From TrEMBL:
This is Amino acid ABC transporter substrate-binding protein. Keywords: Signal, Transport. One of its GO terms (biological process) is amino acid transport. It comes from the Bacteria. Belongs to the bacterial solute-binding protein 3 family. It comes from Roseomonas acroporae. The keyword Transport applies. The keyword Transport applies. Pfam families: SBP_bac_3. Residues 57-286 form the Solute-binding protein family 3/N-terminal domain.
Length: 361
């Protein structure tokens, strides 16, 4: 503390702090005054959080149909990894995972919908790229799924590697990184092909299934899911060649740092829950855990929710609704699904993957 900066000046500075916070601060050691003053207050709701609460529902932009990520089941409920992340966010900010208005968006419509405030967040197999993260006025938050683009082909075609697709017709989706990656890969490798382009994934998948193209190229996880769901699934295979990096992440608009923080820390909290063994089944008993990391995660100590304008048990509400990240993955894409995808890069950092939760403290 510099010379001349006395208690009177400090009291004057704290004059703007609400009475309850001032009383709490007054009982603490002087060295903790500043930090305690910040933690004792719930952050005011920023524009997006305020709008979501006033509306009473989260408007979540999602896909028009991506098996394993977001697709309507036979009861009309949206299911998949992306759908569960929307539910987790609704639980965190509204306390109810069902308070969602789903907005299905094509690849071409997804970013304009977010830019024009038609949706609060985009959670839709959107690949994080430099141009999207900067030029579009958008922010990618934290990776929800590491993927890469591949090729789905018929076993009867006798194709074992992508280089054998010379002269093939290849289905893909317009306005996506898949369309651009396919063109780059063909140019670099001297592959001649005929693009068969559709506006939606479902249209491209149906065209492939109907034999309108020799191969279908998009994210390998989606190809595996699509291939497994075909009536003659045994006659289809995803080639081993991966031609791109496709890190998916929830997307928000520039200019609302609080909402960016909420969506980003949603992901970190779901990773942390898996890391600490907190599950949908045991989260209630874990409220009694003496582990400081679990206590901060579940809101039994600290003010980590209020720092973002949320309830202290924001992460508890998410985990209670959809489970931790591992449970979400396994249920929709992994061993608990028909797709049985390996975790691979989507495993936790201490299990050979890339999912690394930042510390909640």
């Amino acid at each position: 503390m510099r010379q001349g900066w006395g208690f009177a000046a400090l009291r004057a500075m704290l004059g703007a702090v609400p009475l309850a916070a001032s009383l709490l601060v007054g009982a603490l050691p002087a060295g903790l005054l500043s930090a305690a003053g910040a933690a004792a207050q719930t952050a005011a709701a920023g524009p997006t959080l305020a709008a979501v609460r006033a509306r009473g529902v989260l408007v979540c932009g999602t896909s028009t149909g991506a098996p394993g990520f977001s697709v309507l089941d036979n009861r009309g409920e949206n299911r998949g990894l992306d759908a569960d992340l929307c539910k987790a966010l609704a639980a965190a900010v509204l306390g109810d995972p069902t308070k969602i208005r789903w907005v299905p968006l094509t690849s071409q419509a997804r970013f304009p919908a977010l830019q024009s405030n038609q949706i609060d967040v985009l959670i839709r197999t959107a690949t994080w790229t430099q141009s999207r993260d900067t030029a579009l006025g958008l922010n990618f938050t934290a990776v929800s799924f590491y993927d890469g683009q591949g090729f789905l082909v018929r076993r009867s075609a006798g194709i074992a590697r992508a280089a054998e697709l010379q002269g093939a017709s290849i289905c893909t989706v317009s306005g996506s990184t898949s369309e651009l990656n396919l063109a780059d890969w063909a140019r670099v490798n001297g592959i001649r092909y005929t693009p068969v382009v559709f506006e939606q994934n479902e249209e491209a998948a149906n065209a492939y299934a109907a034999g309108r193209c020799d191969a279908y190229s998009t994210d390998a996880s989606q190809l595996a899911a699509i291939g497994a769901s075909l009536p003659d699934a045994a006659n289809h295979m995803v080639l081993p060649d991966i031609i791109s990096k496709e890190p998916h992440a929830p997307v928000v608009r520039h200019g609302d740092d609080q909402w960016f923080d909420i969506v980003r820390w949603m992901m970190f909290a779901l990773y942390a829950a898996e890391e600490q063994g907190v599950t949908r089944a045991n989260v209630d008993s874990m409220l009694e855990s003496p582990n400081p990391e679990i206590r901060r995660l579940l809101g039994t100590s600290g003010d980590h929710g209020p720092m973002m304008g949320l309830d202290r048990r924001w992460a508890y509400a998410m985990i209670k609704a959809v489970g931790n990240y591992g449970e979400i993955f396994d249920r929709n894409l992994g061993e608990g699904s028909i797709f049985r995808l390996p975790r691979g890069l989507n495993a936790l950092w201490n299990r050979g993957g890339l999912m690394y939760p930042m510390p909640i403290r």
